[in-house]
Amino acid sequence: MLRPCLIYSMFTYIVRRLMQGIVVLLAVSLICFIVFRSAGDPAVSMAGQYATFQDIEEVRKVFGLDKPYYIQYIRFIANALQGNFGLSFVNRVPALPLILERLPATVELATCAIFISVVFGVGLGVLVSLKPYLVRNRIIMAGSLFNISMPTFLTGILVIMVFAVYLKILPPFGRGETVTIGFWRTGFLTWSGIKHLILPAFTLGMYQLAVLLRLTRAGMREVLTEEYIKTAWAKGLPPRKVIFKHALRNVLIPVVTMTGLQFGELIAFSFVTELIFQWPGAGNLLLISIFEQDQPVIVTYVMLVALVILTINIIVDILYAILNPKIRYE
Amino acid sequence: MKKVFLLSFIAAFMVALFGFGGQAMAASSIVVAVDSPPRMMNPHGDDSDANLSVMANFFDGLMQRKGSDGILAPALAMRYEHPDLLTWKFYLRKGVKFHNGNPFTAEDVKFSFERLSDPKVSEFINTGKSIASIDIIDEYTVVIKTKTPIPWFANNLHQVYIMDKESTESRSVGAVQQVPIGTGAYKFVEWIKGSYVKMEANEGYWEGAPPIKKVELKPIKEPSTRFAALVSGQVDFTSGVPVELYEKVVKNPKLQVINRPARRSIFLALGSKPGSAWEDIRVRKAMYMAINEDEIIEKIMRGHAAPAAQIPDPPTIGYNASIKRLAYNPEEAKRLLKEAGYENGFDITLTGPNDRYVQDEKIAEAVVKYLAKVGIKARLDVKPKAVFFPEVFEGKLEFYLIGWFDGTFDMGRTYFKLIHTRDKEKGFGALNGAKFSNPDIDTLLEATASMVDQEKRKGVLQYINKLAMVGSIACIPLHYQQDIYAIQKDRGIKFQPRPDRWLVFKEISKQ
To answer: CA B245, CA B200: separation in Å to the nearest integer?
Structure first.
């Protein structure tokens, strides 16, 4: 049970966090707007290759690009509050649905990546912590350093070359067959979809896997020296119980926090992986939009991701308080 | 015992998962990987070749361009008349139906051409605005009058697709952007953005049903992934093989590589801005001669380019075969600079895109180095195309790398854009970003627009071309690019690349 005073302090804390969140979102939108607006004139490419000066001027007017920047920004915010993020300059359709349509692919990829990184990261972390000086475990640790320092781009191309080109056991790109349930297009329900998911999810989760591995190992090594673990051994409990029930449970608190925080990051930074594997997700769309100077899509995307990360952070904070009663929010 | 069970379970799982590698493809279907995905299914909304190429399969224009020579041929118009400089009379094909069953009539033509001038849905505003009136004579005859004489009007009609008036008006703008309804050889099946576009043969196509029944078009932006998709047999065919991977593709015994000289030429635009060092034609000539184009082709383009002496390519009206490149001669360049009073060189900024043309950034780097050898201090300023092109339009560059080819095969239109003096009133010279100006060329160019005799017009255009390239060195031409395709050898695909790099699937067959 939560004590009333904790609930109260948590409530004020959440309200404060939400208000901070709104300020952050506004700042993010403003920075995005300034950066991409001053980078180039979208009207030129929107008017077509053979446009005359007058044609370009007309396009500017139709899309409201002839107004001063601050008016354009105020207009954007006013519309955004009503859920209208403007028309994509490139596709000429509303920006938000364009991104939302692509989001399921990214969420599925990130979910899979986090799953792989938790299972292998925590599993190997425990394994390594038990006998840290074994050659095999030292190789695993060295490998995790390698993972942290290897750019996703290289990992992606390497796994494509090995598993798709030479071994030919997994497809090199795309999402395979998908099934649509309501608005959600999923690749989880077909063989082809799952096969297509393995390589990109592995590539995306690689870094997180290494981080979780090192985190689990460090935590385990610390906990395993504690008195109560010695007591557990002394009582003659089976190793499985000592390791998983007594030691790992205590290590898991920071691991869960880390995993939560990283989930938002995986969604936000999946674009490199998505590019390499031609994964039809939101990150891929973002990259194309940046190349094409499609400012409404870029700003909407960045705001959406900021919102996701903020939400996850708040949820993690709350969970943390529930998991660990020592925490106070003041 | 437990362990053995677990291992065999894992093994069984792996077999189940990986056992069904390599899907068999039906004989009459094809999977194609392209480098740039379509942006929309609205045929007027994007005038990039990547989009027009896809739209060419769903829609028809009044005219079409056929085969490897890009010859202008009738499509939805059986024939046309051009009684005076402003009038174009089209006799439409009868009995053609849109994919939704609606008959194709003069109303659709009028509707489609009027739609061109709406900036919300069209990038062909220029074409749309050049039309004065569209009159329907009867159900199958349309007369279009232009505001000013446009000699290349008909030559451009393979890009202006005809939409179904009824279904375009009755559907929302969003729906029209997503689902195309045309008269083309292929019917739209499904478009999952970033994944694929699927199409199926239109069995009732007026030119006869296309041989390939199902097409799946997959965009793969990353070149190494495109290569992997091809080598692993996932796609039948890909366009846009990067020159860096060319050797690898050629060495692969399963792949066949098809090269074709591209229409696009790459050149360095150089103005004649008053007060600048390069206002002097001797300086422009020196810069031309300082650049070792053969080395650029050999080292940077890895042999996949042909030297250019002018902007238009051979099939273009106005191409002049007598124009020759100035030979690479740094000594002569230095002498010319000395003669012009720039013995110690001068400063200049070379701007260029880094994501538009084959090896664009590397070419620009090389040019800077060649210029340094004759004492010209060029500063390199490369940027993404989305930033670069607006700067060209604003006319604030002094020296830049750009590429060009004209979809109408008409140099007149190109030179009005690139070489004519910038003139906001008349709308000329919008892409003359370095402000080149030669009044003689302007006068002659404007005169060609109203020439009735097309042979004479061609002659004058050739003369203008020589005047611009040799007489006044309006730019430094570098090379024509090469289009490279790779195809799976054993799948019996018959393909002849088109000059415009479009993939028109009715022209491809498979055994």
So the answer is: 32
Contact indicator for B160, B112 with CB cutoff of 8 Å: yes
Is B22 in CB contact (< 8 Å) with chain A? yes
Which parts of chain A sit beneath pLDDT 70? Answer: 1-6, 323-330
B484 contact partners, CB below 8 Å, separation of at least 6:
B240, B241, B243, B246, B257, B258, B259, B304
Candidate from A40, A49, A58 with C-beta closest to B119: A58
pLDDT at B1 > cutoff 50 = no
pLDDT tens track for A211-250? 999 999 999 988 888 888 888 888 888 888 888 888 888 8
pLDDT in tens, B227-286: 999 988 889 999 888 888 888 899 999 999 999 989 999 999 998 888 889 999 999 999
Q: Tell me which residue in A92, A276, A279 faces B121 most closely, judged by beta carbons.
A: A92
Range B397-431 burial, b when 16+ CB lie within 10 A, else e: bbbbbbbbbbbbbbbbbbbbbbbbbbbeeebbbbb
- Given an 8 Å threshold on Cβ–Cβ distance, is A46 in contact with B119? yes
- pTM (predicted TM-score): 0.86
Asked if the Cβ–Cβ distance from B387 to A173 is below 8 Å, we say: no
* CATH architecture label of B261-482: Roll (3.10)
DSSP state of B26: P
Spatial distance between the Cα atoms of B200 and B186, rounded to a whole number of angstroms = 5
As a CATH number, domain B12-219 is 3.40.190.10
Q: Is B5 an 8 Å CB contact of chain A?
A: no
Residue extent(s) of CATH 3.40.190.10 domains in chain B = 12-219
- Window B:160-219, CB contacts with A under 8 Å: 173-174, 177-178, 192-196, 218-219
Q: Phi and psi for A75 in degrees, rounded to 5?
A: -60, -45
Spatial separation of the C-alpha atoms in residues B193 and B487, rounded to whole Å? 24
Domain with CATH 3.10.105.10 in chain B: 261-482
| Distance in angstroms (rounded) separating the CA atoms of residues A92 and B200 | 26
Torsion angle in degrees (nearest 10) through CA of B278, B281, B287, B292: 160
Instruction: List CB contacts (< 8 A) between A171 and chain B.
Output: 232, 234
Q: Cβ of B435 under 8 Å from any chain A Cβ?
A: no
Answer whether B21 sits within 8 Å of A44, measured CB to CB. Answer: no
Residues with Cβ within 8 Å of B501's Cβ and at least 6 positions away in sequence, in order, are B49, B53, B239, B262, B483
Is residue B53 within 8 Å of B161, Cβ to Cβ? no
Cross-chain residue pair B40–A91, CB shorter than 8 Å: yes
3-state SS, residue B22: coil
Across the interface, do A101 and B413 touch by the CB < 8 Å criterion? no
Pair B155, B72: CB distance under 8 Å: yes
The nearest alpha carbon in chain A to B418 belongs to A50
CB atoms B194 and A90 under 8 Å: no
What are B475-500's pLDDT values in tens digits?
Answer: 999 999 999 999 999 888 999 999 88
What are the chain B neighbours of A292 within 8 Å (beta carbons)?
386
CB within 8 A of A164, min separation 6: which ones?
A170, A171, A172, A199, B228, B232
Burial string for A174-198 (b: 16+ CB within 10 Å, else e) reads bbbebeeeeeebbbeeeebbebbbb
For residues B156 and B146, the answer to whether their CB atoms sit within 8 Å is: no
Closest Cα in chain A, distance from residue B149 (Å)? 16
Q: Do B195 and A293 touch (CB under 8 A)?
A: no
B397's CB contacts (< 8 A; 6+ apart) are B269, B349, B351, B391, B433, B434
Contacts of B126 (CB under 8 A, 6+ apart): A47, A48, A50, A51, A52, A55
CA–CA min distance B229, chain A (Å): 6
Closest residue to B21, CB basis, from A52, A59, A169: A169
